[in-house]
Amino acid sequence: MDNCLSIGTPLATKPKLDVDLSGEPVDQSDYRSKIGSLMYLTSSRPDLVQAVCYYACYQARPTQKHLKEVKRIFKFLKGAINIGLWYPKDSGFELTAFLDADHAGCIDTRKSTSGGIQFIGDKLVS
Fold first, then answer.
1. Taking CA 102 as the corner, what is the angle to CA 99 and CA 107, rounded to the nearest 5 degrees?
2. Per-domain residue ranges for the chain?
3. Rounded distance, CA 77 to CA 71, Å?
4. Distance (Å) of CA 1 to CA 11, 33, 46, 71, 121
5. pLDDT in tens, 52-95
6. pTM of the entire structure?
7. Cα-to-chain-centroid distance, residue 22
8. CA angle, corner 94, sides to 89 and 100, nearest 5?
9. Which top-level group of life is the source organism from (predicted)?
10. Number of Cα atoms under 13 Å in the Cβ half of residue 44
11. Distance between CA 114 and CA 5 in Å, rounded?
């Protein structure tokens, strides 16, 4: 991955992933290791949380298609290595929240996905 090109987003907008029962399986240990490393990183990189959690759902039987999408996160990180969160002590305390939902968006289960972000002042907190 050292020589890969960077990419602008950690999660592709289309097509959505599915279980891919006919795909070529990959090593579960390797896939889980990559997901675990990315989960550790999400504590300081909330921009990765949605993508990492989405791909973590496929740890039971990962295929080449799933591994390709996990590698997309690493390609994103290559171009966004210096991005991080900064919370100066003089920031304001006004709470602002944004929410979104994708009703029946999962191809496999037809379950809905929702998420939100909260700011204190102009600083992201959750």
1. 155
2. 8-83, 86-126
3. 10
4. 17, 15, 22, 8, 37
5. 998 999 999 999 999 999 999 999 999 988 876 666 777 667 88
6. 0.69
7. 24
8. 115
9. Eukaryota
10. 12
11. 31
